[in-house]
Amino acid sequence: MYWADKLIQNLDKNKTHRVDDGSTPSGHYHVGSLRAVLTHGLAYEAMNHANFKVDFTYFFNDMDPMDGLPVYLDKKIYEEHMGKPLYKIPAPDGKSASFAKQYASEYIDSFNKMGFRPEIFWSSELYESGSMNDNVRTMLDNAPEIRKIYLEVAKQSKPDNWYPLQVICPNCQKIGTTIVTDWDSHEVTYECKPDLVEWARGCGHQGKISPFDGRAKLMWKVDWAAMWARLGVTVEGAGKDHMTAGGSHEIASEIARRVLKITVPFSFMNEFFLIGGAKMSSSKGKGFRATDLLTILPPAVAKFLFVRTPYRTALNFDPSRPETIPDLFDDYDRHAAAWFENGDKTPLGRIYQASQLGDTSTEKLFLPRFRVVAKLIQMPGVDLEKYFSDEKKSPLNEKEKEILAERVRYSKIWMKEFASSEERVEIKDKLPESAKKLSEDQKTFLKDLHQLLTTKEFADGEALQTEIFELAKINPAGPKGCFVSIYTIFIDKTYGPKAGWFMLDLLKKDKEFVLKRLTQL
Ligand SMILES: [Zn+2]
User: Ligand 1 centroid vs 386 CA: distance in angstroms?
Assistant: First the structure.
């Protein structure tokens, strides 16, 4: 059974559901961050598929302070903003509305491309609009109970004047440096402390202020519970770093039950998404970004990666290994074949269906093998559409032509970025050294081939292939030895694409070059 169908199978169908996920937009999102949003998105789609009443939301904690500087940003410019809420910091690109908006938009774009379009919420807007005011009041009124929860669940002892709220300092605009020490039902007493955190310095300002309408924000574990209540969330999981005993999810859950008196959303723990075996941490700021994944894989194939891997299994994807991407396409095609054969009746077929972005039809499609496309595009003048129509034994339809064009695009990228040198077919400008090792029989074959090509024209690769084979059969080197001689003198390899088509394409491009090379030995 497909993991997302199984994950949601015991949820109450009579209830209206909301699947929610969220994050802090503190810089470029790492590819690893896609695991959480996709797990939620796929759970949402599986619920839709099972006819639940459900929607999907995503919230950005854009009121969180900047508490670290990504390596790609200029320290001189951003140091003064450390500790300020992310939505009040100018965007590095100079165009976006804020720092938070710039990076969030980039991330939204990457999951939008895979077909996920949750309704987006911004902490700053929820707080500023006053719609969090009730939650802020409840949490402040219940501060003693929340302190008790921290002690019981996380063994963290908070002083009696600790409140789960941080105000934006009216003097220096920082939120990461402030503490609240009292609450009189109208205003909180706050202090902006110079030495509260290592990454930012408070201004020392203190006073009283109303905590409502966006002047302050609940601390995140408390805020998480408040968001469940505010958005009416029924399904929300988290990465395993949040799901440890005494961790943030457990604290938020206790606050939800004991303070807000709400049902804790159905929860699950998604595993990490690893690239090449190492956990990609967003704080390091380097490496593979969420947006990068969609530059090396088409959306449905990228989505397939997450659909085929159960959410509790660590996903280890290493595109730098030359076989990874062609293998992924082959596996995708295998699932597609199951879908065209039996629809969603087999897990394979269902996984293919769940990987699609739009409507799925069981109309059989011809999928050109990625590996073959990658080989063919390296040859000048190959008519790919004709090649694959021949393989299919009928013309490609519009949809198949689109798929072919897409695979051409992505195989070029793979070839450039990840393919090993063995996979690259490169016509050598000069006769390779290895040609000297060819036997007399092989040389004779090349002369015969030269003779053939100067005296006869060939309409298609098939016809030329047949004649080359006839020549090879009568040569003592045998077909294998003869074909090796062709690949040796043109691409310096002992194997290559089908000789008939390969030679014909070369002839079309530069006949003089081909004939000269054949007699150069
Ligand atoms: Zn201050």
Answer: 69
